[in-house]
Amino acid sequence: MTFCSRYLKGMKTKFNRSERNFDGGMNEFNGGLKIFNHPGRTLGAGRQCHLDPNELEQAHLYVLKNCDAVQSFLEEYSQTEAISSQTLSDKEWDSQFIEWFKTRVSQMHKSDQSEEIKDLLALSRGPTPYVTSYKGYLCNGYRFHIEEHDKGLRTQNSGVIVVGENGIDVESIDYYGVLVEVLELQYLRGKRVVLFRCKWWDVYDRQRGVKIDEYGIVSVNFHRILKTNEPFVLASQVSQVFYAIDNNYKGWHVARKVQPRDTYSMPLEMEDDVENLDHLNAAVQDALSSSPNFVPTTMSSTEGEISLVRCDMEQISTSESAPKQTKKTKKRHL
């Protein structure tokens, strides 16, 4: 059966099937925005739902602020005299930027019809209020499920971690949380962006919210939820963590980062290390070649000679091999 399956076209077998957490791979890039081209694959049937105006604005702002092509517009907007002379709250600043960005891109679209400008135009108009909700998603080599799906199961796929900056002293900080909902935003021209709605733990309080011991092990307090107006995060930015209950402290859980499936942490071979090994081998060969009864043993290859002498033990002298003993067999008389 295994032999025959190799000749059946379109038949999935263990020889040609995709990896368990295969996210579909990168789509063909057509010159537009990369934020519309992140690989990923939804799990299960989608459910249509409606976002209220506040949630829709939060999702739209997060996508804009985390799109590489919009960073230059954010700087331009911040440097305008009309904005710099006003004292605006964060909410007012964000709301005015959305309108300014929409007008700015519309003006650029009149003279530039490139794919990037077309995608920027679709991005500036914002997503539709009707989004598709899923219970799972595959991306970055991880299999994510929402928190509700994990209840009652022995497995755990809802823990998330995002590396960001706190904006105060530009210190890198890890944000820990759990996945609540997978949302697929829909834009003009059939463009889509997948966001994770998450519940974040309070990582700013280093005493009651998060602890890091001398071994680098991180513990988070599930009773301390971070109050933030940014519950969303791009699916492409997320890695996975596993939470284990800390029996010493009530409400605390130890967070352990998960390695993506079918990936392995391999040490990098530096050029300096290779050169040092070459010098070490040369010194050992010189020392051994001066000893009596030493016969250099090497094998040639396309890249040069490879030494077959062990450097981690002392030299052992052996005598000539003993003659082989033949086993005597008795003849059977019929």
UniProtKB/TrEMBL annotation:
| Listed PANTHER family | DUF4218 DOMAIN-CONTAINING PROTEIN-RELATED, TDCA1-ORF2 PROTEIN
Pfam families recorded for this chain?
A: DUF4216
Which residues belong to any copy of the DUF4216 domain? Answer: 183-254
Matching InterPro entries, A to Z?
A: DUF4216 (IPR025312)
Q: Can you name this protein? A: DUF4216 domain-containing protein
Ranges of Polar residues composition bias in the record: 315-324
In this chain, composition skew of type Basic residues spans: 325-334
According to the lineage, what is the superkingdom?
A: Eukaryota
Query: Residue ranges of region Disordered?
Result: 315-334
